[in-house]
Amino acid sequence: MRRSSPLLRQILRGAASSSSSSVGRRSVTYMPRPGDGAPRPVTLIPGDGIGPLVTGAVRRVMEAMHAPVYFETYEVHGDMTTVPPEVIESIRRNKVCLKGGLATPVGGGVSSLNMQLRKELDLYASLVHCFNLPGLPTRHENVNIVVIRENTEGEYSGLEHEVVPGVVESLKFCSERIAKYAFEYAYLNNRKTVTAVHKANIMKLADGLFLESCREVATKYPGIKYNEIIVDNCCMQLVSKPEQFDVMVTPNLYGNLVANTAAGIAGGTGVMPGGNVGQDHAVFEQGASAGNVGNEKLVEQKKANPVALLLSSAMMLRHLQFPSFADRLVTAVKRVIAEGKYKTKDLGGSGTTQEVVDAVIANLD
Questions:
Q1: Which residue range(s) make up the domain with 15?
Q2: 255 near 150, Cβ under 8 Å?
Q3: 185-244 tens-digit pLDDT
Q4: By its UniProt entry, which InterPro entries does this protein fall under (predicted)?
Q5: Domain boundary among 222, 237, 266
Q6: 111 plus 143 within the same structural domain
């Protein structure tokens, strides 16, 4: 059966026309209407460390709620030299992937498989949603930030070389499509403000080009407030007054830092969902850094937090046009967090992955 048009193609097609009348004629939104109900295949990469634990948790919840998806599972590990061709082919065929964390080697010229996936599939937009969850106390309230960062260019393109011993040159560049994605996301989700994060006071050409693109796109969305903030001031403002931010659009390196900071403020990386989206494909995974991916104690004790990936899988269900299933899942997860009876160590409890999963299943409507 022919698949519906991919999410990002719909978004960019809508952004191509800036008149208010054309906006009114849109037949799709970022949160798609229910589709035809046909079960959808999803490529599943359990990953390393806690990955199999949390992806297994998602599978159990999906089965319990009879979600109309089925998984094609592939073993991929961060110490591989490349992503196997059959995995890439599966994602190209299915259009959607759910993955656990992959360990990324540090230094030594070894390529990150996460980056290989993003470049191979042109997953240029990273979206991380950082928000307060009732029942999870944090220093700040009313945090609801969406961090949208460029995912494949600039530093993350990996285009660097040693000119002479001790001198390394790295390429940094940006494109306007990430700005278009951010403003269209804000428009379709009734967000009021888009903030561009930059360092154009120093990187006058590279970050200056990024700001030019954002400013040009902003003129096409007069109903959305646009502002700019230097990245170091942004970090200070995040930890002091995070409630002032709505949608943030950033080049990739700044966005990685901003997203992890926002996640920590809102309750921790273990509860923040995210996805990497391109024109034709989408990979959903834990939103902020999976720094605990190799935590052997969590694996041995089976106490990894599955909440982030459960919420990411809800994003996936919306992407696949199953919004009612997504709502059921999010509601159940929020109930478990609010009750506070079953929490993993990162949330101040001692619960196991299985206990959290059982509680979520028990709270499904």
A1: 1-128+272-365
A2: yes
A3: 999 889 999 999 999 888 888 888 889 999 999 999 999 999 999 999 999 999 999 999
A4: Isocitrate_DH_NAD, IsoPropMal-DH-like_dom
A5: 266
A6: no
For the CA atoms of 104, 89, 148, 252, the dihedral, rounded to the nearest 10 degrees, stands at: 40
Cβ neighbours of residue 160 under 8 Å, at least 6 residues apart?
168, 169, 170, 171
Count how many domains the chain has: 2
Statement to judge: residues 90 and 175 lie in one domain: no
Same domain, 196 and 300: no
Last residue of a domain, one of 207, 239, 266: 266
How do residues 142-188 score in pLDDT, each as one tens digit?
999 999 999 886 555 545 545 557 655 555 555 788 999 999 999 98
Which CATH number goes with the domain that contains 31?
3.40.718.10
Rounded to an integer, the average pLDDT of 122-129 is: 93
Residue 133 lies in a domain: no
- Cα 327 to Cα 336: distance, rounded to the nearest angstrom: 14
Nearest to 312 by CA among 293, 291, 288: 288
**d(C-alpha 342, C-alpha 177), whole Å:** 41
Record the tokens describing residue 301, joined without a space. Answer: 């004790």
Element (H, E) at 12: helix 7-15
Residue 266 carries which DSSP code? H
Q: What is the DSSP string of 34-49?
A: P-----EEEEEE--ST
pLDDT band at 292 (very low <50, low <70, confident <90, very high): low
